[in-house]
Specification:
The protein is an all-beta fold. Helix content is 1%, strand content 43%. The strands form 11 sheets. It has a 6-stranded mixed beta sheet with strand order 1-3-5-12-7-10, with no helix packed on it. Strand 43 and strand 44 form a beta hairpin. It is globular and about 80 Å long. The two termini are 18 Å apart.
Length: 686
């Protein structure tokens, strides 16, 4: 099974203003591919198709993830996990490298990683046979890792020898094009620096193999990346288990010259403290559809009291959001006092970070991006880095919603005697493209319901089942996406404890059309951590089931400030679109499933505006746009206009306006008609 692209390239909003076009080409973090389940055996392993690959995956309870990779004799394989963004709070991964038979262990590692104390890394493991090899990621049977980033690099070129002197940034050796250095630390005081250039948004993965000869000689090294606000950010796991290694990751905010440092804090090292260092660049994804909107509601004082301040910005453009990033510049004399959140135009709130850094760092100048390399809070330095939000928060809670309206930055200062200034902040929004069919085809609607006239023929069942049809009235999931009615787990409250609740669509026949088939719906939710409560959306024929969406984040509440105030977080009304072409010629049902534990009940799930569409040649599916020219009416023509079930491709399928979007009323005809989420695209190669 091959890996599929994690996020497709998006189209620019058609109403972008001239002043914003200059800001449109904004880096959006490194491109990832998405793990594809089920991949828990060597036979179902996801194929890694490139010599340098970045994968985002999840380890569920008892889960193992296998990946296959083609290696040539003489290659070396480097692989490492970054698991500190795991919303479960567990970052324990075990990485095993298998020989071509799928059972013989070449190397394995449990706790050699550093970005996540229990993460894992195998650095430059040599192979002697040209064949398909396997990598397995696992955790303990009772723990989940939601999510991990998995970095893989194949080293095929000979390493370049270290050149002394290189013990200062001013004498740093230029990194060779291969990114691989063979070096030696001559003393515990020796520092080896290597320099290279990065563009804004680039991500680097670097590993340090402390026993490239695999001769059992062990010593502890450390690995640094810099400089950020004048500091080199260093990782050191303290392990001396052979073959010992370190791994480090970073996404940079600004273009410039950066450095990697190899060193040690050990009291003594072997006479031949050799290492193999490799640095892999994952370029920022350049998208032509991203626009930065900067707040003019600055500068704002953060008082030297327990306080709460807000700053707003208005987005005039109305499109569906495919990706959102936040940039913040502020000063404060005690950074751990600050709790910062973002509120969208429809009122939903998502956390960004809480109580990070230390009182020696008085400046924040960061980007926050779900596609960054590491979460904020790993290092005290909060300038010059493009971080992931803290592990409990996700910026993708805003994906799929409408852009237009007022966005608000919320800053709580939860201790007195320290203050600061919010200097600037902005959001970068990337627009989703309209759905399209291959050339020569048009799109038609197979089935569609906005749940206004009736319940759409949906049914529900289960234990402590709270699915209801009607108008949601319980915060934070108040209202429907369009009109008054939708399906929700308890219209006027929270879901039940110990619940198994299933919502089924009617059986739907999928025609055997020439082009792709898509399913689309609107969803909004508030959930307890996926360690306890689970939401999935799937379709199937009764035999074959495909998971389309799976909640994998932390509990969606956020206690901030002093006195503490608990915010009820939620997603926006998010438009979901998935390719279901493998079900052509079959009858399917959609299933929206919730199961819960015996404590903590939150707002749950709401579903609206369900639709299935197909692409086919105009000769088969197109509806005439003009009436026939014949003047005689056939005698068998009914007196009422016939119902046409195939919608012309140029006619909007939904004309209602979401009732819960403040400030700017979105029209479905004003922006793109669909947002693709995890479409099955081929993963990028070299």
């Amino acid at each position: 099974m091959g890996l599929r692209a994690f996020k497709p390239v998006q189209a620019a909003p058609s109403n972008t203003t001239a002043s914003q076009i200059a800001q449109a080409n904004i880096p959006q973090g490194a491109v990832r591919v998405k793990e594809q389940e089920t991949n828990n055996t060597t036979a179902t392993a996801n194929a890694i198709m490139s010599s340098s690959t970045l994968i985002r995956g999840i380890i569920w309870n008892g889960d193992v993830d296998f990946y296959s990779i083609e290696l040539a004799a003489g290659d070396r394989l480097t692989a490492a996990t970054m698991s500190s963004a795991s919303a479960s709070g567990n970052n324990d991964t075990v990485l095993t490298f298998f020989a071509p038979d799928g059972t013989t262990v070449v190397e394995t590692d449990d706790n050699d990683g550093s970005i996540g104390a229990n993460s894992s890394v195998i650095s430059s493991a040599p192979v002697t046979q040209t064949a398909t090899y396997y990598l397995r990621l696992s955790s303990t049977s009772t723990n989940q890792v939601r999510y991990y980033d998995f970095y893989v690099r194949v080293l095929s070129e000979a390493a370049t020898a270290e050149q002394e002197p290189n013990d200062l940034v001013t004498t740093a050796q230029v990194l060779p094009a291969s990114g691989t250095i063979s070096g030696v630390l001559s003393a515990t005081t020796d520092l080896d620096f290597y320099q290279f250039n990065l563009n804004a948004g680039d991500t680097i993965f670097t590993s340090l193999d402390l026993n490239p000869e695999r001769d059992g000689i062990v010593w502890n090294g450390r690995l640094g990346i810099g400089t950020f606000n004048g500091f080199t950010l260093v990782v050191d796991d303290g392990s001396v288990v052979s073959p010992n290694a370190e791994a480090h990751f970073m996404t940079v905010k600004t273009s410039g010259t950066y450095y990697v440092q190899a060193s040690t804090t050990a009291a003594s090292i072997p006479a031949e403290a050799t290492y193999l260092l490799d640095v892999t660049l994952f370029p920022a994804e350049q998208q032509a559809n991203c626009t930065t909107y900067t707040s003019t509601d600055v500068t704002k004082t953060i008082p030297t009291t327990t306080s709460f301040i807000t700053s707003t910005l208005t987005v005039p453009d109305n499109f569906i959001i495919a990706d959102l990033d936040v940039s913040i510049e502020l000063t404060h004399t005690n950074m751990p006092d600050l709790d910062v959140q973002l509120q969208g135009p429809d009122g939903n709130v998502g956390g960004l970070f809480t109580d990070i850094s230390n009182n020696t760092q008085t400046t924040i100048n960061i980007d926050l991006d779900d596609e960054g390399a590491i979460p904020i809070g790993i290092f005290a330095i909060v300038s010059g880095v493009r971080y992931i939000p803290e592990f409990a928060y996700r910026l993708d809670w805003f994906d799929g919603g409408r852009s237009a309206g007022t966005w608000t930055l919320l800053i709580h200062d939860d201790a007195a005697s320290n203050g600061g200034m919010l200097q600037n902040w902005s959001i970068t929004l990337c627009a989703a493209p309209p759905a399209s069919c291959p050339d020569g085809m048009s799109m038609s609607t197979i089935t569609s319901t906005d749940f206004e006239a009736n319940d759409g023929g949906f049914t529900h069942s289960g234990t402590a089942d709270t699915w209801e049809y009607g108008a949601p009235i319980a915060a934070p999931l108040i209202g429907s996406y369009s009109g008054a009615n939708s399906w929700k787990t308890n219209l006027d409250g929270t879901y039940s404890i110990s619940s198994i609740a299933n919502l089924f669509s009617p059986s739907i026949s999928i025609p055997n059309v020439a082009g792709p088939v898509y399913i689309q719906w609107q969803q909004r939710y508030q959930m307890e951590s996926a360690s306890f409560d689970h939401y999935t959306a799937s379709i199937g024929t009764g035999v074959v089931t495909k998971t389309l969406y799976e909640f994998d984040a932390a509990t969606m509440t956020n206690a901030v400030g002093n006195p503490s105030v608990t915010f009820q977080e939620s997603t926006v009304w998010s438009r979901q679109l998935h390719d279901i072409s493998e079900f052509k010629g079959q009858s399917i049902q959609a299933l929206y499933h919730l199961d819960t534990d015996d404590s903590v009940q939150l707002g749950g799930i709401a579903i609206d505006d369900f639709q299935i569409m197909a692409c086919d040649s105009p000769a088969v599916t197109a509806t005439p746009t003009e009436e026939p020219t014949a003047t005689n009416t056939p005698t068998n023509t009914p007196t009422n206009t016939p119902i046409i079930t195939i919608t012309p491709s140029n006619t909007p399928t939904i004309t209602v306006t979401p009732s819960n979007t403040p400030t700017v009323t979105p029209s479905v005809t004003a922006g793109p008609t669909m947002i693709p989420v995890y479409l099955p695209l081929v993963g990028k190669g070299e």
